[in-house]
Design goal:
Helix content of chain B: 40-55%
Number of domains of chain A: 2
Shape of chain A: elongated
Largest interface: A-B, 36 and 36 residues
Mean pLDDT of chain B: 93
Shape of chain B: globular
Radius of gyration of chain A: 29 Å
CATH superfamily of the largest domain in chain A: GAF domain
CATH class of the largest domain in chain B: Alpha Beta
CATH superfamily of the largest domain in chain B: GAF domain
Low-confidence stretches of chain B: none
Oligomer: heterodimer
Helix content of chain A: 55-70%
CATH class of the largest domain in chain A: Alpha Beta
Order of helices and strands of chain A: HHEEHHEHHEEHHH
Strand order of the largest sheet of chain B: 2-1-5-4-3
Number of helices of chain A: 9
Distance between the termini of chain A: 87 Å
Strand content of chain B: 15-25%
Number of helices of chain B: 10
Strand order of the largest sheet of chain A: 2-1-5-4-3
Strand content of chain A: 15-25%
Structural class of chain B: alpha+beta
CATH architecture of the largest domain in chain A: 2-Layer Sandwich
Radius of gyration of chain B: 18 Å
Number of strands of chain A: 5
CATH topology of the largest domain in chain A: Beta-Lactamase
CATH topology of the largest domain in chain B: Beta-Lactamase
Distance between the termini of chain B: 56 Å
Largest sheet of chain B: 5 strands, antiparallel
Number of domains of chain B: 2
Number of strands of chain B: 5
Chain lengths: 246, 233
């Protein structure tokens, strides 16, 4: 089987979307997704809409060009349109003509505007992480033939490739947060051990006693043990922490 | 034989990590043996950049000692791996160039260790800590041994990330902080000598170095009031 130029471009496009360096810019990735869609599919423009966590508000993230951006803004203004529906629906939107029902009926105000801009049909595929639907890759068409079933599957594959990169980034961010907490916990531990030493020397008690006192003092005043310990190690020991045993 | 055992260990640790286990699920002595090493230690890097030994075989005769040596002297493979974010290897501590670790290399040679490998535990742009292996025989680390070490480092990082943070912070449970006594002693010194914590840690390390004593030995002597450092240097 020989490889066509188009197949090569598709393979490269998928790799470009899935394989991103650590700390990449997600906005740039999504913009590249729209660019790949326009380059590889018979569509005039492509845009990304994302559903906010409230489950209803749809935000426009990026678009392949000004035309798509303007139409996305129109939908926001009219509060109707395929890019809103696709982001809310969490699933693919089949190709719908804007010149005839059901497209022209479903979006009575948006459809004429889109047609005036030269867009005659729309479709969308889902953009998602493994456990989470993010929104949609919207595809705007200006002429026939419109996207076929295989084209839509390719569009979904491109969106999935970008979703993979986003999922990896999310995973890394989650772990990064865990690590930060762990490293902060270690700093806390060091300062608590040091504060035990300070109290142990000042009160001539052993480390366990020193720790109990620190903890009791922090609890009774609803202070964080770490904050109290940091204060103690700076030599700023609260006077009533130094009074002999209760 | 060892190969299959090592793969089994990795598999079981991946499963343990998958269910949220921390480093206590990993037997340091067995891991060292299967990696053909004689000591294995893992240090966590604090947000302020301090490296604290968190995991080792309690019966390890020289791994923790070598880590404490680096902490005392302020140089060595573990510190280099954290600083450069790259793997650090010395195949013969007895023949290392004098400029590499002028204090650590000769000190290390008074222990049985002759070769060392230190791998930074990287998470994106962050450095979580360092996994360090020591071997009593000098010589290179063959490619396979190096690859196995790197694979073990990856699962160790997963386990490390499951360390219970509250338990680590207040020390009531969770992993043993190997150098706890050092920080307690530093706290005592701040009160006794009227110096800052950082200054107290410097005094402590200097005393251990000058008297050629293990740092923990000095720290425990201070904590148990068998030793009192004088105010002047």
């Amino acid at each position: 089987m020989t490889t066509t130029n188009r197949e090569l471009l598709i393979a490269q496009g998928v790799l470009d979307l899935a394989d991103r360096p650590a700390g990449f810019d997600p906005l740039e990735l999504l913009h590249d997704l729209t660019a790949q869609a326009v380059a590889l599919l018979p569509v005039r423009s492509a845009g990304i809409t994302v559903l906010e966590p409230d489950g209803n508000t749809v935000v426009y993230v990026t678009a392949s060009d000004e035309l798509c951006l303007a139409l996305e803004e129109d939908q926001s203004e009219l509060n109707e349109g395929p890019c809103l529906d696709s982001a809310r629906a969490h699933r693919a939107l089949p190709v719908l003509s804007l010149s005839e029902p059901p497209g022209s009926i479903r979006w009575p105000r948006f459809a004429p505007r889109a047609r005036r801009a030269g867009i005659t049909a729309v479709a969308a595929v889902n953009l998602h992480l493994p456990q989470l639907s993010l929104g949609a890759l919207n595809l705007l068409m200006a002429e026939q033939p419109y996207l076929g079933g295989q084209d839509l599957r390719l569009a979904q594959t491109l969106a999935d490739a970008a979703g993979t990169a986003l999922a990896f980034r999310q995973q890394l961010a989650d772990k990064d947060q865990v690590l930060e907490q762990l490293q902060t916990a270690l700093d806390s531990r060091l300062v608590i051990e040091q504060a035990k030493g300070v109290l142990s020397a000042r009160l001539s008690v052993d480390m366990d006693d020193a720790f109990q006192r620190l903890r009791a003092y922090a609890r009774s005043r609803q202070q964080k043990l770490t904050d109290l310990s940091a204060r103690v190690t700076r030599g700023d020991v609260p006077a009533d922490l130094l009074t002999p045993v209760r | 034989m060892v190969r299959g055992e090592f793969t089994d260990l990795l598999d079981s640790l991946h499963r343990a990590a998958g269910t949220g286990s921390d480093l206590s699920a990993a037997p340091a002595d067995e891991a060292a043996r299967l990696l053909r090493l004689d000591a294995l230690t893992l240090a966590l890097r604090s947000r302020r950049g301090a490296l604290e030994l968190l995991w080792a075989d309690p019966a390890d005769p020289f791994g923790p000692e070598l880590e404490d040596m680096q902490y005392t002297l302020g140089e060595g493979p573990t510190l280099d791996a954290a600083r450069t974010r790259r793997t650090v290897i010395e195949t013969d501590l007895g023949a290392a160039p004098g400029s590499r670790w002028p204090l650590f290399a000769p000190a290390a040679c008074r222990t049985p260790a002759r070769a060392v490998i230190a791998v930074p535990l990287l998470l994106g742009a962050a450095t979580a800590g360092v996994l360090t292996g020591y071997r009593t025989a000098p010589g290179p680390f063959p490619e396979r041994q190096y690859q196995d070490f790197a694979r073990f480092a990856r699962v160790a990082l997963e386990l490390l990330l499951h360390t219970p943070t509250h338990a680590l912070a207040d020390g009531t449970q969770g992993p043993d902080l190997h150098r706890a006594a050092v920080h307690q002693a530093a706290g005592m010194l701040t009160a006794q000598l009227d110096v800052s914590i950082d200054e107290a840690l410097v005094r402590l390390r200097a005393h251990a170095w000058r008297h050629d004593l293990p740092l923990l030995h000095v720290a425990r002597a201070i904590v148990s009031r068998r030793l009192r450092l004088s105010p002047d240097r």
